[in-house]
Design brief:
Blueprint lengths: L1 E8 L3 E8 L3 E8 L2 E8 L7 E5 L10 H9 L3 E5 L23 H14 L7 E5 L2 H11 L7 E4 L17 H5 L6 E3 H5 L4 H6 L5 H11 L17 H4 L7 E3 L4 H5 L6 H6 L5 H14 L2 H10 L20 E6 L11 H9 L3 E7 L6 H4 L1 H13 L4
Parallel strand pairs: 5-6, 5-7, 7-8, 8-11, 11-12
Antiparallel strand pairs: 1-2, 3-4, 4-6, 9-10
Helix pairs in contact: 2-3, 7-11
């Protein structure tokens, strides 16, 4: 049963979060330079900790359907607004500012600092969705003594990168030579104009996000993903335009033709208009720059190049992968889904694709997601 809770974010903002009644919102200070906003349940007593890490463009609120069932299973469940998002403060929103805080190693440090601030020494399970998935993966890879299990959702993990020549051509250059020319969404997200294109789009941020979430969900019937043969422009161009965009369009223009009808919106129970309004309100307030900084750090030759120091290291704690069967994210980097199971995770307990779910698997099919996640979390860490 849901109720509306009033949560203040400083003197200027009071937002209404439609949260389950057992979920509370609070702030944790001194988290690697951040004041981190978290949603949590099951805090009472000495319970094992579960961390839920969201992706882009999302919030801690994206875990609203997972938090209470996991707490009822006997865990202290915490979902933070990560660096760059929501009500978490202390990060640099300037496009020309210091990107170093958004590199992957520091995002892992954010999570470790949150664990310490919560008074814990270890995490029973860290769960990451979308861009939260590689953060969770590196948590488990770099600090298996702290993170005892890891569940990855929607974005498979192939292991740390190998050293690459800085002179290697970028795939975005090759995509631009196609007819018609295309571009990779991650390169677009690294541009200065991406934030304003989405935040100030003509249709309004609420309508933009409705189209974006719909376009990547199982509700968009043309999401029928399959493995691609190679990291090559002709193969990548087979993906929908939300991944391989038309060269002359921003993301706002990309998703506009796929805006669902009024009837489809009314039928969408996994993301109601009231729930969508939370996302629209938060991103209208903060912009998208915070999340987009993560993509800028992820490009070849960027700050995340330091991750190749860990090349060859594997995730050895128990691991699980869950995604929607209609999620192109599983295959957007050819071979990653297979390498995750074969090489990167040495203690993989399962890789599951849920029927009737797209990219937002824990929101689109929460019951089915929990049916896979709960037995994994309850298993012994052997």
């Amino acid at each position: 049963m849901s109720t509306v809770r009033q949560v203040a974010d400083g003197p200027e903002l009071t937002a209404l979060l439609p949260l389950p009644e057992d979920v509370r919102s609070r702030y944790v200070s001194d988290v690697n330079g951040l004041t981190m906003h978290i949603l949590e349940a099951g805090r009472e007593g000495d319970r094992p900790l579960i961390l839920l890490l969201h992706g882009f463009p999302e919030l801690a609120f994206s875990w609203r359907k997972m938090i209470v069932p996991l707490a009822q299973a006997g865990f202290h469940v915490v979902a933070p607004d990560q660096r760059g998002y929501g009500r978490t403060t202390g990060w640099d929103a300037d496009y020309d500012g210091d990107l170093a805080g958004f590199r992957m190693i520091n995002l892992v440090r954010d999570v470790l600092a949150l664990v310490a601030a919560l008074g814990c020494r270890e995490v029973h399970a860290v769960v990451g969705h979308d861009f939260g998935s590689p953060v969770a993966a590196y948590c488990a890879l770099l600090r298996p003594d702290v993170f005892r299990r890891v569940a990855l959702m929607s974005a498979p993990f192939a292991g740390p990168p190998q050293r690459r020549s800085s002179s290697a051509p970028h795939i975005n250059e090759a995509l631009g030579k196609l007819d018609p020319p295309r571009k990779h969404y991650q390169w677009y997200y690294s541009t200065r104009e991406a934030d304003a294109n989405m935040r100030d789009c003509p249709q309004g941020i609420h309508a933009f996000l409705r189209a974006y979430y719909h376009h990547k969900s199982a509700d968009w019937r043309d999401n029928c993903p399959y493995p691609l043969k190679a990291w090559a422009p002709d193969e990548l161009a087979k993906m929908p335009t939300y991944y391989i965009m038309n060269a002359g369009e921003g993301m706002a223009e990309t998703v506009t033709p796929h805006m669902p009808s009024r009837a489809e919106i009314d039928a969408c129970k996994w993301l109601t208009e009231d729930e969508l309004a939370i996302y629209a309100g938060e991103f209208a307030r903060t912009g998208f720059h915070g999340g987009l900084q993560w993509y800028r750090c992820n490009l070849p030759g960027s700050l995340n190049q330091e991750l190749d120091l860990f090349s060859g290291r594997t995730i050895d704690v128990p691991s699980l992968f869950i995604a929607g069967k209609s999620d192109w994210g599983v295959y957007q980097i050819p071979g990653t889904f297979e390498r995750m199971q074969r090489e990167a995770c040495t203690n993989m307990r399962g890789a599951h694709l849920i029927e009737g779910a797209g990219h937002w698997v824990q929101q689109e099919r929460p019951r089915e997601t929990l049916d896979l996640l709960l037995p994994f979390i309850a298993s012994l860490p052997t």
